[in-house]
Amino acid sequence: MFTLEIDGTAVAVINGDEETARDLFTCDGFKSDIRELTSAGKPLWNGTSELKVRPATEDEVEMFEDALADDDGSGDFEPVEAHADSEEDEDEADIVFLVDIDEEDEEDEDGQKLDA
Hints:
26% of the residues lie in helices and 20% in strands. The protein has helices spanning 18-25, 28-36, 58-70, and strands spanning 2-6, 9-14, 38-39, 42-43, 51-55, 95-97. Strand 1 and strand 2 form a beta hairpin.
């Protein structure tokens, strides 16, 4: 397993080999996603910081495995379009974010949209 680290923060883990991790974590579609996704109101990636791919630590592997074990399949999974036309028949890799991702369109008790 490999981890994507940005500015010293472990952001995501993938259960693929290093080549797969580098390909996915550096593809244009994924980079666009991590620029749009936020954690604590800040983008995961500022568009200029290094995207470091490194072997996952034991703790990161455990977090990955726990997240997959807790997944009931009801999440909002969206395939990465950049890889939709891939001719590879290999199993697709799973990605788990290690940071809390802000919910889109959060609403208060009255249904009013909150600013992130």
